[in-house]
Amino acid sequence: MRRGRDPDAGLAPWAALERTSRGRRHAEPPADWRGEFQRDRDRIIHSNAFRRLVYKTQVFINHEGDLYRTRLTHSIEVAQIGRSVATALALSEPLTEAICLAHDLGHTPFGHAGQDVLNDCMREYGGFEHNLQSLRVVDELEERYAGFSGLNLCFETREGILKHCSLANTRRLGDVGQRFLERRQPGLEAQVADLADAIAYNNHDVDDGLRSGLVTIEELRGVALFARHHDTVHARYGELPGRRGVHETVRRMIHDVVSDLIEESGRRLAAARPADIEAVRAQPGPLIGFSPERDHEHREMKKFLRARLYQHEKMQATRLGAGQVVKDLFEGFMADVARMPPEHRDAARALEAGSGAVGRARAVVDYIAGMTDRYAFQEHARLLG
Length: 385
Ligand code: MG
Known about the structure:
By secondary structure, this protein is mostly helical. It has helices spanning 36-45, 48-52, 71-88, 93-102, 111-121, 130-141, 155-161, 167-170, 178-182, 188-212, 217-220, 224-237, 244-272, 277-281, 292-310, 313-335, 342-370, 373-384. Helix 10 runs antiparallel to helix 13 and helix 16 packs across helix 18. Bound molecules: magnesium ion.
């Protein structure tokens, strides 16, 4: 028997309740004092993969400056937004937080540049999806328990981590992949985490983009959401010195989209009144979402950032360099797995014995995807002398 508070107390009937959880892959006695989703969150925080996020690129490569977001601070901002929304909607806060903190655990070094190159390298061997890799980290790769590999998280946490998945991969994932085949929805906490991710990066990338000088306030004023709040700040405070004007604008943008998300989702939930999480999963579409107007503005900002920041020519140069590092690592380790540290070399031999070159490639990619930016540079220097 667990001692302490009932983790389901005060939650809406459509929330992920621990008493109806589909549970863990390996049965474990209940935690003393903590709820099971809280325990999942704590396992994620104690994992190796979580600590590595501190030296992984979000948008700007780690050595470009100390103030830019890293995957770690991004994940914490996602969790903060997710928790606010979950609490307002009487959903499970620890489950939402667990999903948010884990959503990028499988991200490669060098952000999307790293992931695109790894996916190219893996074309003949089943591909690489960072989302699926996050699940692989918590299901297989973390080595912390005597009785099993991975963190043995609850189904609901794993369901939330696997945001999307190609149909080719769903079949071999079993229970957690099933919903993509059946076109079912994930639980509401997973839906919240997904949008909290988008809100976090849309807003912190405005801040980081301005800091980098790659985008300007004048350009951003072409985006309705930014212009509206920038006007409000200007009308109220006039010309603010330093970065205060940017921060006053960004915090208003976050508040605006988060409030809209809570209100619109509240309306949808009140109309649909799903009896429980199973009824949420059976809905034809997500119940967590923005109003049409805010959704439009949110997408407009996303498009702006893609065109003006992520695809900026200065970013492209960095991407090419980082991509080459990842490609060299993949080719070097594929050619000779003994050049990896012993535990990865052994994993490669074991996987190769089971499924040939596909297995070897999977072990190589597990090693590379786990690297931080700076470790990838170090390994690259070691490999190429
Ligand atoms: Mg993310």
